[in-house]
Structure formats: C-alpha cells, structure tokens
Amino acid sequence: MNKGKEAKPHIGIFGRRNTGKSSIINVLTGQDVAIVSPHPGTTTDPVKKSIEIPGIGPVIMIDTAGIDDSGDLGAKRVSKSLQVIETIDMAILVISENCFDRFEQDLLDAFYEQGVPCLFVHNKTDRIALKPELMHVLKERFNGSVVEFSALHPDNLEELVDTIRRLMPATAYRRQSLLGDFLQYGDCVLLITPVDTEAPEGRLILPQVQAIRDILDNDCIAIVLKEREVDAFLRKSGIKPRLAVCDSSVFLKADASVPKDIPLTGFSILLARFKGEFDSYLRGTPAIAGLKDGDRVLLLESCTHHVSCDDIGRVKIPRWLTSFSGKKLHFDTVAGLNKLERPVTDYAIVIQCGGCMITRKQLVNRLKPAIDAGVPVTNYGMAIAFMQGVYHRAIEPLVGKNTDPSMYL
Questions:
Q1: What's the pLDDT score for residue 380?
Q2: CA dist 117 to 11, 47, 63, 134, 342, Å?
Q3: C-alpha–C-alpha distance, residues 323 and 307, integer Å
Q4: Would you say 107 and 138 are in contact if contact means Cβ atoms under 8 Å apart?
Q5: Which of 51, 213, 284, 317 matches a 20 to 30 Å C-alpha distance to 238?
Q6: pLDDT attached to residue 313
Q7: What pLDDT does residue 190 have?
Q8: How far does Cα 315 stand from its chain's mean position?
Q9: Which is nearest to 173 in space by CA: 55, 64, 62, 290?
Q10: Contact 23, 123 (CB under 8 A)
Q11: Residue 237 has what pLDDT?
C-alpha cells in the first residue's frame, strides 16, 4: 500500500487472522468485495474499497492482513498492515471468541501514537458472546466504543454504521472552504492557470478545479485565464478582483501583472493552509536561505504521475533551489506515501507538494517525523514564492493584514 490517492476518509479494519474482517467489509458494502475463507491468512496485502456511509459520504475501507500472521512472509504482511495506520482517519479492531492480548494492545498503542480513534467490534457473537469482563476492559481501560456483531447474521448493522459515523473525526469528511473566508457574495476571483507541458490533456489540475468549485459554492465569480492574458483582461474589463490565485510556476509573471492592491497567492499555498500544516510551513520556508554545500533536500510528491521533461518537483524546484542558494545540493524525491530510504534527519529541508490527492490526516502524518525531529518543512508553492522573491506578498492574504509576514522570515 504505497499511495493514498483518494482524498476521502479512510477506515482501516484490523485484527487477527480469521476474525471476520473481510466478512464485515462485505456486509458494510453489501457486496462480496473481499475474499472470505475459513482458512486463516486469506487476506495478504491491504485491499481498498470505496463505500458510501450516510452522514459521512464516500469512505475508503482498507482490509488488512492478520496481525498475528507468522513466518518471514507473515511478518512482511503485518508490516504492511501497520503502515496503513499512518494513512487512516479511523480504525476498526475486530476481535472474536474473546481473544484480546498483546497483538491487540500493540495495535492500540500504534493507533494512540497516530491519534487514530478506534472502534472495537466483537464478531461472531452468534457463536460466542462477548464476556462482560472483556467488555469492561475495552470500555473502561481503553475508553473504547464496542459493538457486538455477527457478520453472518448482521441484525444490528445499523448500530455498527451509527457508531462508525459517531467516531469518525468530522475533520476527515466535513467540507471546509478553500477560499470562503476571503470572499463575500458576488466577489470576483482571478485564477491564473498556465497551460504548459505539465497541464493534463484536455482538463485542469485538481487544485484549480477545487478552487473553481469553492468559488461557485460561495456564490462568487471565477475568472479563469492564462498568465499571458492577465494584463489585457484587467485593462480592458476594468474589473478589480477580490483575490488573484496563480499556479506556482508563474508567480513572477503574476506578481508583475496583478496590481499590488489586489491580494495575490498561489493554489499550492491555499492548499497548504487547507490541509493543516501551514504554521509549520511558515516556520520552515525561510530555511531555504540557509542551505549549505552538501545539504540534502527531500521532495515529497503525494501522488504518482507521468514525469514531464520540465516537471515542477523533479526538475524545476531543484533547478531553482540550486540557482537561488548557489550551493551544491543533493535531491531525493519520494512519490505516493512510500517509506523514506533515508532517515528524515539526513535532510536540511523537506518540501511537500500541495497534497491535493491525499487526506489531511495522510499529509499531517507524512510530515510528522520531520516536524518532530526539528527538520524544516515547506511546500512547493511557498518554496517557489520564497525563491522568486514574492513570498511576502503570497502569504499576506493568508496570515492576515494585522500580521506582519516578515515575522516569519
């Protein structure tokens, strides 16, 4: 499981082999989407399935291998299951026949470390009921919600769904506004979207689409044009946009074309605030100015894509960083949610993409090791703005007019 491409709430289902994890997924989805067998260890690699939960919306369910798997291959399966914890918003821990010991406790420790809420499901209660003493331990010692369930006779399915809905963090599914707090009814927003070798054929990239939808949801007007049309449009139309948003690659052009009395920022910078690590980016971005010869820079792409000859993360940012710093730097790029090949402390700075294809939880967990270790972090848009000398202007709309952006420099 090396990528988190769906920006939807993720629920991981964990437990020992043959507790009925796959059967519960089939009951929840109403389909035979997971292979079910009486033989332990049927599920090997984590398997993902999208379902709809009323009150939450689309959700990604992840079926994992048994945490008690054995042997060298079993250890690798367990390792993959544990990696899933970094990508989920909520966990379901399935137990049966009242089995609960170090396997489950180790999982709970991992959930706690990642801040993942957990629902206990005692499956196969049609055969063996949950003992009152174990129920007490789960509720009192682990402060957990417990549902007694039978995937074979799911008479209380609605109770299970209701409990999932109650435990799922609202931040995982409740729509927040990308631009709403900048806008009032009827405002115009200028979206500067270059069409270059990185632009997908026949469509816009996801952050641009998200911005357009958010503008419309806030009853405002989106004006979409290429960077070379900005001067003519502003001159001929006489329109003064409430805000201008540009692709990071054209910050210099946008800064020159958009009058200084019109706030200007970037799609990637908006995503930085939207995804939740903006303060860390503000603190980390100025570290670009202190890079030294031999420093190693980590570029994190949270999706996989075809690499163009002028790719923003693999080509442009390394080129700009080298030119800006005048230093001999080493660059590593990691795509998806793959494990790092080096300790994060080997890096002088970590530069994360906008994160439009992953959840907020996945992005936060992706950057947590670097932040905990004191390694500066930033994102593509903020790094580019800093290197191109427009950082002060690009962050001003987001830090507020009453805050001096220079305090972060």
A1: 93
A2: 10, 20, 17, 19, 30
A3: 22
A4: no
A5: 213
A6: 81
A7: 97
A8: 23
A9: 55
A10: yes
A11: 96
Question: What global pTM score does this model have?
Answer: 0.68
Q: Is residue 383 classed exposed, middle or buried when 0-12, 13-18 and 19+ CB atoms within 10 A define those classes?
A: buried
Q: What is the pLDDT of residue 69?
A: 85
- φ, ψ of residue 86 in degrees (nearest 5): -70, -15
Structure tokens at 23: 């059967």
Q: Which domains does the chain have, with CATH numbers?
A: 10-172 (3.40.50.300), 180-270 (3.40.50.11420), 277-387 (3.40.50.11410)
Residues 50, 116: Cα–Cα separation, whole Å: 19
User: For the chain, what is the HEC assignment?
Assistant: CCCCCCCCCEEEEEECCCCCHHHHHHHHHCCCCCCCCCCCCCCCCCEEEEEEECCCEEEEEEECCCCCCCHHHHHHHHHHHHHHHHHCCEEEEEEECCCCCHHHHHHHHHHHHHCCCEEEEEECCCCCCCCHHHHHHHHHHCCCEEEECCCCCCCCHHHHHHHHHHHCCHHHCCCCCCCHHHCCCCCEEEEECCCCCCCCCCCCCHHHHHHHHHHHHCCCEEEEECHHHHHHHHHHHCCCCCEEEECHHHHHHHHHHCCCCCCEEEHHHHHHHHHCCHHHHHHHHHHHHHCCCCCEEEEECCCCCCCCCCCHHHHHHHHHHHHHHCCCCEEEEECCCCCCCCCHHHCCEEEECCCCCCCHHHHHHHHHHHHHCCCCEEEHHHHHHHHCCCHHHHHHHHHCCCCCHHHHC
* Amino acid identity at 43: T
Q: Report whether 302 contacts 366 (CB < 8 A).
A: yes
pLDDT of 75 reads 85
Residues of the chain scoring pLDDT < 50: 1-5, 34-37, 39-43, 305-309, 402-403, 405
In the block, which residue shows the tokens 């009453």? 402
Longest dimension (CA), the chain: 76
Instruction: Label residue 289 exposed, middle or buried (CB < 10 Å: 0-12, 13-18, 19+).
Output: exposed
